[in-house]
Amino acid sequence: MGFAEVSTMLWRERDALEQLLYKLVTEQLIVSSGRTRWLAQANEEIEAVLQQLRGTEVLRAAESDVLAEQLGLPLGASLAELSEVADEPWGTLYQEHRRALLSLMTEIQQVTAENRRMLAAGAKAVRETLLSVSETVRTYDASGTAQAATDRPRLMDEQA
């Protein structure tokens, strides 16, 4: 166990994050195209990559702990801490891994936030459409009792 093993695990983690980003962008394209039939499959693929990533993170943490112990660092030492005490070329390589991982995580967070926004907007549109065409809309009065809302005029866009 040593520097090379930790580096190998970091490459695997980076690869898993790249796959996750790809799957999230694929999900985004599905949502934006309106072909939601493939949304469940996209979600399953994202879950599979997340499961792979969890396994890779556990293995990397174990390898990092062995290396940290060899270097006299506490268990759970961060990648930044490992890179500070590692001899060259490992210190520089670990810093590069760290920058790449941080960059991937930032990009994943941005795509995930956009996907959530798009999915929430789609769900809201569906909810509003269903409420506008239902015969009775249930609302609550001041006492919390459910009651049918009074009929109101409805506009239908027949162009869509």
Task: State the main characteristics.
4 helices; Methane Monooxygenase Hydroxylase, Chain G, domain 1; mainly alpha; 160 residues; two-stranded antiparallel sheet; 71% helix; single chain
Secondary-structure topology with pairs:
Blueprint: H1 3-33, H2 39-70, H3 79-85, H4 90-133, E1 138-140, E2 146-148
Antiparallel strand pairs: 1-2
Helix pairs in contact: 1-2, 1-4, 3-4
Describe this structure in words.
- By secondary structure, the chain is mostly helical.
- The protein has one domain: Methane Monooxygenase Hydroxylase, Chain G, domain 1.
- Helices cover 71% and strands 4% of the residues.
- The protein has four helices and two strands; from the N terminus they run H-H-H-H-E-E.
- Helix 1 packs antiparallel against helix 2.
Compact description:
With about 160 residues, the protein is mainly alpha-helical. It has helices spanning about 5-35, 40-70, 80-85, 90-135, and strands at about 140, 145-150. The termini are far apart.
Kindly state the number of beta strands. Answer: 2
Distance between the termini: 62 Å
Estimated helix fraction: over 70%
Q: List low-confidence stretches.
A: none
How do the strands of the widest beta sheet line up side by side? 1-2
Summarize the main sheet: 2 strands, antiparallel
Mean pLDDT: 86
**What is the level-2 CATH architecture name?**
Up-down Bundle
Shape: elongated
CATH topology: Methane Monooxygenase Hydroxylase, Chain G, domain 1
Structural class: mainly alpha
**Global Rg:** 25 Å
Number of domains: 1
Order of helices and strands: HHHHEE
The percent range for strand residues is under 5%
CATH level 1 name:
Mainly Alpha
Counted by DSSP, the helix tally is 4
